[in-house]
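Fill in residues.
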């Protein structure tokens, strides 16, 4: 299979992945303190907001307001909706003497492919009086807002994610966005081919001219690969699909860049070592060696 056909098939496969669909997320409220028997649990964090692939912390201050009784303490956390969300409690003293307090940290994070939206972090504190064994439970809630790098928010039904579309159907805006990217890709193809062909054409080196054309074509593919995730965000497809497509695209882009770098390297190395070196300051026989070294590095 030729390299052009392979690239074309990959683009079609990536774009075809966009036709799946999955659901989105919920919203909740919170407060910042709770009394559990004689134990006061308080935080100065009213809410959390961060991007997918990142996280934040909630610092709890747990105080035993009793002057006589000690308590055993158990802290549990949950996030709703919980998909691809994590809440971990730092180590803490499992018992608290009268009049004492301690600080506990809750680390909250979202996977890179989590959906954007509002969640509720619920912190449940269970206390047991050491003398007597009475068990009391209380909970506090903190709102968590997750922003996704793959969300359509701010991009939906906007051409190139910038200009509001005159059409109500977002697929038209997505198609126009992709069309703009195609135009940019074609211009880049022409520009790269022209620049590299000028370097190679004077000596009539057919291999280098072929490399110039190939580099131009794969630069066009590279630009189109950037355009696909942009277009489907405009379309409004669920960000989990956008994330999956973006990961596939990123892998193809890495290979594509390596291939382009190799083709450009060959043309530029030939231009410097052979064509421009009219005074023979560099031995032309070094070109195959330089080309081999470049191939290994790339």
């Amino acid at each position: 299979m030729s390299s052009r056909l392979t690239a074309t098939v990959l683009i079609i496969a990536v774009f075809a992945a966009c036709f799946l669909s999955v659901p989105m997320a919920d919203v909740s409220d919170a407060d910042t303190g709770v009394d559990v028997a004689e134990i006061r649990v308080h935080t100065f964090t009213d809410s959390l907001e961060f991007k997918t692939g990142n996280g934040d912390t909630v610092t709890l201050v747990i105080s035993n307001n009793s002057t006589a009784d000690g308590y055993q303490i158990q802290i549990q956390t949950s996030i709703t909706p919980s998909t691809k969300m994590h809440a971990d409690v730092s180590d803490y003293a499992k018992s608290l003497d009268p009049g004492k307090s301690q600080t506990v940290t809750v680390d909250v994070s979202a996977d890179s492919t989590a959906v954007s939206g509002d969640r509720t972090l619920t912190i449940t504190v269970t206390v047991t009086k050491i003398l007597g064994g009475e068990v009391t439970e209380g909970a506090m809630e903190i709102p968590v807002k997750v922003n996704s790098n793959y969300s359509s928010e701010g991009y939906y039904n906007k051409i190139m994610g910038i200009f509001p579309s005159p059409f109500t159907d977002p697929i038209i805006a997505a198609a126009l966005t992709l069309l703009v990217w195609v135009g940019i890709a074609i211009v880049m193809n022409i520009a790269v081919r022209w620049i590299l062909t000028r370097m190679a054409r004077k000596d009539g080196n057919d291999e280098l001219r072929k490399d110039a054309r190939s580099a131009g074509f794969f630069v066009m593919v590279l630009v189109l690969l950037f355009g696909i995730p942009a277009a489907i965000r405009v379309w409004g497809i669920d960000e989990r699909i956008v994330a999956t497509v973006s990961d596939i695209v990123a892998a193809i882009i890495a290979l594509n860049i390596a291939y382009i770098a190799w083709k450009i390297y060959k043309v530029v190395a030939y231009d410097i070592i052979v064509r421009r070196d009219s005074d023979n300051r560099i031995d032309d026989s070094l070109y195959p060696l330089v080309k081999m070294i470049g191939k290994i590095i790339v």
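Helices lie at 3-16, 170-200, 206-235, 239-275, 286-297.
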